[in-house]
Design brief:
Blueprint lengths: L2 H13 L13 H17 L26 E4 L8 E2 L11 E4 L4 E2 L2 E2 L6 E2 L3 H7 L6 E4 L8 E3 L7 E3 L3 E4 L7 H7 L3 H10 L10 H6 L1 E4 L2 H48 L13 H17 L22 E3 L12 E3 L18 E5 L1 H6 L8 E3 H6 L4 E2 L4 E4 L7 E3 L7 E3 L3 E4 L8 H10 L1 H6 L12 H6 L3 E3 L2 H21 L2
Parallel strand pairs: 3-9, 14-19
Antiparallel strand pairs: 1-11, 2-10, 3-6, 4-5, 7-8, 7-10, 12-21, 13-20, 14-15, 16-19, 17-18, 17-20
Length: 496
């Protein structure tokens, strides 16, 4: 049960007479209502309030639920002065009265310092001026039915036209009535009384016809005291509930992250001594790098080699990015920057056009996403940024670190500036294993993300020289992928 549901249940119990015990010694509510009726009649005779239109009698079929014998059903309009609409005026910096609007009522409170002024004709001010225990109800818009009880008012203030004022004949009822106006039953009535297909609204007539259950005055006091005792406990429950909700929401992600960490530390599956050691593969890769440099296929960039210092199994290697990619200059490529490609160069899709792959393809894991194309001539000039089936693209700006393997069925094209393209050496590293590995280090990469408004993936220099990639034997990589996928599926099912 959510805190909101718990609070609603308490208030519903309160208005149904189920929250506290009835006391046979209490004066029945019928006597209280007689006094209110007499007092209202006296106010009308004295000319202090106007006579309202008589409200229809309450039929047994109309009563929404049973109430204790000592309680009475009454229409809201019968226990208050004529319901009053607010004053129509624009807000001003100065005037003879404050003007309370719907927007001034926030979290059951009004900051009077922020309430604007208006000028009210003296003839109307007496009738419109707010008093302590006046009830304001929003009559239109998204907050229709929302109520506020004016307390300890020291300002001359009136209420705006989108509000309705209810002023009880007997203010002893105010606390119980306020809780009634928060109850599920009241909101159900507001929903039924609403009119209008556009802006929902409720008028004074419909409000006055709402049925309200009235307990004996002594029982009202007990109900209010009980609610006020319970609400702090509901608040405590809400804090605990919200903490648990946060834990629940984070549980799946944290558990999956732990699985990835175990996998990348060699703790998820058993090592098989018959697997070919990844160390040998890495040695071969380093020799291939030297040959590629000598053959001018790869730029001679110095990089700091990574080592397995005992934090991984003995038959694992630890590599840098260029060691697990193919040994050519196009294997690690960030999309073209600056004026190399601009929107003015885009053309409609057609014969001899080439697609621009963007980070939406990586984020959505969708090869068909995007509709930007360039001519064949432009493609030829940017062929270094070509993407092919089996390449991995990585989002580099904003939503960083999202990965996607380019499928075999794809349109020829290039990457844009928001993508990094990798062509892995599959004799060293399995593509699916790399995706898991990259995901496991994504938090490390985000810490080194550059940019202010929009974060950008860490520089290629950082990726090449600072990030270590643990490399198990190929067969173990495949076992890890299989086990991780199985566990991740189970976690997702558990979290539903």
């Amino acid at each position: 049960m959510t805190p909101e549901q718990l609070k609603a249940s308490i208030l519903q119990y309160a208005v149904e007479g189920k929250l506290v015990k009835q006391d046979p010694n209490d004066e029945p509510a019928s006597e209280l209502l007689k006094r209110i009726e007499n007092e209202k009649a006296e106010l009308i005779r004295e000319g202090k309030i106007k006579k309202s239109k008589k409200l229809p009698a309450i039929s047994n079929d109309e009563e929404p639920f049973d109430i204790p014998d000592s309680w009475e059903w009454i229409r809201l309009g019968n226990i208050c002065e004529p319901i009053r609409y607010g004053f129509t005026s624009s807000a001003k910096d100065n005037g003879n009265s404050k003007l309370v609007r719907i927007t001034d009522i926030q979290n059951n409170n009004v900051n009077w310092n922020n309430v604007p002024f208006c000028d009210v004709p003296k003839v109307k001010l007496k009738d419109l001026q707010l008093k302590t225990n006046d009830i304001l109800i929003a009559r239109t818009g998204g907050t229709v039915g929302k109520s506020f009880v004016v307390k300890n008012i020291s300002e001359v203030a009136v209420f705006a036209s989108y509000l309705i004022r209810i002023r009880l004949i007997d203010n002893e009822l105010i606390d119980f009535v306020k809780y009634f106006l928060d109850s599920p039953y009241y909101w159900q009535m507001i929903s039924l009384k609403q009119s209008g297909t556009g802006q929902p609204n409720v008028n004074a007539t419909k409000l006055s016809e709402i049925l309200i259950p009235i307990p004996p005055i002594e029982e009202q006091k007990r109900i209010v005291a009980k609610i006020e005792k319970l609400m702090p406990l509901v608040d405590e429950y809400a804090e605990s509930y919200n903490r648990l909700q946060k834990i629940d929401n984070e549980f799946e992600d944290k558990l999956k992250q732990s699985v990835l960490q175990y996998a990348m530390e060699g703790k998820l599956v058993k090592q098989n001594l018959s697997d070919e050691s990844a160390i040998n593969n890495l040695k071969e890769a380093r020799e291939e790098i030297k040959q590629a440099i000598n053959n001018k296929k790869l730029r001679n960039e110095k990089y700091l080699k990574a080592q397995n210092n005992g934090e991984y199994p003995k038959n694992w290697a630890v590599a840098r990015l260029k060691e697990i990619c193919e040994k050519n200059n196009a294997a690690i490529k960030r999309g073209p920057f600056g004026s190399s490609i601009t929107k003015s160069m885009f053309v409609p899709k057609g014969k001899d056009t080439f697609k621009i792959y963007e980070q939406g393809n990586a984020i959505r894991k969708d090869i068909n996403y995007g509709s930007y194309y360039i001519t064949k001539d432009k493609f030829e000039s940017l062929r270094a940024f070509e993407v092919k089936p089996g390449d991995i693209i990585i989002s580099c700006a904003g939503t960083i670190g999202e990965t996607f393997i380019i499928p075999s069925k794809m349109e020829p094209g290039i990457i844009n500036q928001a993508l990094l393209k990798l062509t892995l050496d599959t004799s060293i590293i399995d593509k699916d294993f790399f995706l898991l590995e990259f995901k496991s280090i994504s938090s490390q990469l985000k810490l080194h993300a550059k940019g202010s408004a929009i974060k950008n993936l860490a520089s290629l220099k950082y990726l090449k020289n600072k990030v270590s990639f643990p490399v198990p034997p190929l067969e173990e990589q495949k076992r890890i992928v299989k086990n991780v996928e199985k566990i991740m599926k189970a976690i997702s099912e558990l979290s539903k």
